[in-house]
């Protein structure tokens, strides 16, 4: 359910006409430039290498403008991404297989370009694995076996497989110009595989399996003739900090997702560096720095925040490949007014742009939560694991147990970015769930002044109408279109929690997929919260949550307490390492907001690193309604003829509401009566009084009340005499 203010906005299609000078590397020789007329053989054509500066290209994009709206550049990283190529899972046989390139470290199979039987009975297979020069080969595989080599000979396995030097592996680096694999020529002859089969710019992998007697075949080849694959550090990439990021000779290997994106856009999309990246280079540097930030690991040490091991087909759309790379870093990219690309990696920053009533023409606001058909409360997390021979495996799902309990159902989505870390995919899942389940979202149409949002991921947004404020806080922009009828823009947004990057490895990192045949340990008992209550500061400016927990009497427990405002989705966590063992444990949170509804939960970790589930959430009200403010100060009072006079300074408490003057004929406040009206000066302000009284002896008090008028503190009494 949403609230629409003003005109209904019709979002149209995009139009853009761009002639883009190309830059890029010559993607080396066509794998299938020529076909050998030999049965069972697909030949590699010889090709010449081109330099970066010799390649040029242009792109012409056209579209339509409808109802006065025009896109100003799509925001990538939030949409569908290209799936991993088939060659990441198995070898393929195809008359025209797509080229495959990869970033970071991963394992690739190949496309068969030759599969022949030599005159001596040996099986000879050659694969085209990767387009572009690799950096370093890490591991060869035959089927699912990681193998080692002595020279080119595969070493015998523990069970006798590949014995007697029966299998040999050869490979090229993908350099241009390349060199033909001479061992294949020796086996098959130059008429089938000659010196011209260099495969310039293509990583080739060749396997020669010698013939063996039938009675030994299953001993040597227990799974038949094996399919080969290889793990490697793949392409080198430009560095935004380099003197000239387009100088290929200075490129280096990296796992940095933003540098991967820069490489793809320069080499494959062939954008013009001078006009599309250089003007916004500081954004690329900052985003690359975010990717390289160290994140603590619960086992000790650190890993880089956002790494990528994306492999892609050259037939995939540019948008889907860029989205796959950006998915690895929760990235965001869009064009700004000068046409340059502004890019951000996934990390919140304090907005510098504010949009409010002066800029907004119309808005649509949704602040009633997310329906079941849109919400998610469980994300199945997968990653590419080097410990599992670079296969995709699962880690612990990211779950919102409170939402599951409230909705009474599990709403599952999956997240399978091509990243090499279980902790990283769970950090991505945390951000995805917070964005998907954010309570507030909508669209805004602005006048010309609102165009300042272009190139901004986060802004401050204030939505007001007829004196009612619907939203006031930071938001993330998820799409932007130019509005030709208003001269401004129309953008969609979703509320963002500034605490989204808070990360506790002990409770949030999860565990890697198990390796080997280890027996799973018994799950830990979930702790139970006995009591949870607010502890208010003396002036009500902040609160803490005191939690008493039923605990196991173990000396190796480390406790965790987390809290969040009930309306938010992101938790704040604290660790307690010095809690005495016992069957009842008391934890006191850090400062939490007063006059708020606060959710709280606890968990614990045992000495072997396992962490319990979180306890059922308790909700605590931190209202200061019953908290008295601090007393008024500097109270003076004097008697006179038919009157009393004096002054005081109001309480400085944050929950101070007003002051009163009271009098009585005894020094007992319980029998006193208010004198005059309320004194409504602000906290800490001075108050002066003159009030009429009949002749007698009196006692005077000044009384400070809280903003709810339900609790007070007294100052006095001061005795006076009225004549």
TrEMBL record:
Residues 623-638 have a biased composition (Polar residues). Residues 623-648 are annotated as: Disordered. It comes from the Bacteria. This is Tip attachment protein J domain-containing protein. The lineage of its organism: Bacteria, Pseudomonadati, Pseudomonadota, Alphaproteobacteria, Sphingomonadales.
């Amino acid at each position: 359910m949403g609230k629409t203010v003003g005109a209904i906005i019709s979002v149209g299609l995009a139009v853009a006409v761009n002639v883009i000078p190309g830059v890029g590397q010559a993607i080396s020789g066509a794998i299938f430039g020529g076909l050998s007329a030999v049965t069972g053989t697909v030949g590699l054509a010889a090709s010449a290498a081109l330099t970066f500066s010799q390649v040029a290209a242009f792109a012409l994009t056209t579209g339509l403008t409808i109802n006065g709206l025009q896109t100003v550049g799509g925001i990538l990283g939030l949409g569908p991404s290209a799936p991993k190529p088939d060659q990441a899972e198995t070898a393929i046989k195809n008359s025209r297989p797509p080229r495959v390139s990869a970033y970071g470290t991963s394992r690739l199979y190949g496309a068969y370009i030759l599969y022949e039987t030599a005159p001596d009975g040996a099986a000879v297979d050659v694969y085209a694995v990767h387009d572009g020069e690799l950096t370093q080969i890490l591991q060869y595989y035959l089927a699912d076996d990681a193998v080692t080599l002595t020279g080119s000979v595969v070493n015998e396995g523990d069970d006798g497989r590949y014995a007697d030097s029966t299998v040999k592996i050869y490979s090229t680096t993908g350099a241009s110009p390349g060199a033909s694999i001479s061992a294949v020529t020796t086996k098959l002859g130059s008429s089938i595989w000659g010196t011209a089969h260099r495969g310039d710019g293509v990583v080739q992998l060749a396997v020669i399996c010698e013939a063996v007697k039938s009675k030994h075949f299953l001993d040597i080849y227990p799974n038949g003739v094996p399919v080969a694959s290889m793990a490697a550090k793949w392409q080198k990439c430009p560095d935004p900090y380099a003197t000239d990021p387009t100088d290929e000779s200075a490129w280096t290997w990296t796992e940095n997702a933003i540098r991967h994106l820069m490489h793809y856009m320069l080499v494959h999309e062939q954008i013009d560096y001078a006009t599309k990246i250089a003007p916004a280079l500081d954004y690329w540097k900052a985003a690359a720095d975010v990717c390289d930030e160290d994140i603590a690991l619960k086992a000790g040490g650190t890993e880089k925040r956002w790494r990528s091991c994306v492999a892609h087909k050259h037939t995939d759309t540019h948008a889907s490949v860029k989205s796959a790379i950006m998915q690895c870093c929760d990235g965001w990219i869009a064009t700004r007014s000068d046409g340059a690309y502004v890019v951000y990696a996934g990390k919140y920053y304090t907005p510098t742009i504010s949009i409010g009533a002066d800029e907004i023409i119309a808005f649509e606001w949704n602040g009633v939560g997310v329906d079941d058909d849109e919400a998610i409360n469980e994300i199945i997390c997968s990653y590419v694991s080097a410990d599992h021979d670079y296969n995709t495996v699962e880690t612990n799902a990211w779950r919102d147990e409170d939402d599951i309990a409230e909705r009474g159902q599990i709403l599952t989505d999956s997240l399978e970015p091509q990243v090499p870390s279980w902790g990283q995919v769970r950090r991505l899942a945390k951000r995805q769930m917070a964005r998907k389940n954010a309570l507030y979202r909508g669209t805004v149409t602005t006048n010309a002044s609102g165009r300042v949002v272009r190139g901004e991921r986060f802004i401050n947004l204030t939505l007001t109408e007829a004196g009612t404020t619907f939203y006031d806080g930071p938001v993330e922009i998820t799409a932007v279109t130019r509005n030709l009828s208003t001269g401004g823009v129309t953008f969609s947004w979703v509320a963002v929690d500034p605490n989204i990057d808070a990360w506790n490895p002990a409770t949030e990192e999860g565990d890697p997929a198990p390796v080997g045949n280890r027996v799973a340990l018994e799950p830990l008992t979930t702790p139970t919260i006995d009591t949870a209550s607010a502890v208010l500061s003396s002036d009500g400016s902040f609160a803490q949550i005191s939690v008493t927990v039923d605990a196991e009497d173990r000396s190796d427990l480390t406790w965790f307490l987390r809290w969040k405002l009930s309306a938010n989705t992101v938790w704040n966590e604290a660790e307690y390492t010095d809690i005495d063992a016992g069957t009842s444990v008391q934890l006191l949170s850090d400062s939490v907001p007063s006059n708020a509804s606060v959710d709280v939960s606890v968990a614990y970790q045992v000495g072997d690193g396992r962490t319990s589930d979180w306890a059922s959430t308790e909700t605590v009200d931190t209202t200061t309604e019953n908290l008295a403010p601090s007393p008024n100060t500097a109270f003076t009072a004097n008697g006179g003829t038919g009157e009393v006079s004096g002054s005081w300074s109001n309480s400085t408490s944050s929950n101070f509401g007003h002051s009163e003057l009271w009098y009585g004929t005894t020094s007992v406040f319980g029998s006193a009566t208010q004198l005059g009206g309320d004194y409504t000066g602000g906290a800490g302000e001075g108050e002066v009084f003159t009030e009429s009284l009949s002749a007698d002896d009196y006692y005077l008090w000044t009384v400070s009340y809280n903003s709810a008028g339900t609790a007070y503190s007294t100052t006095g009494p001061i005795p006076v005499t009225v004549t």
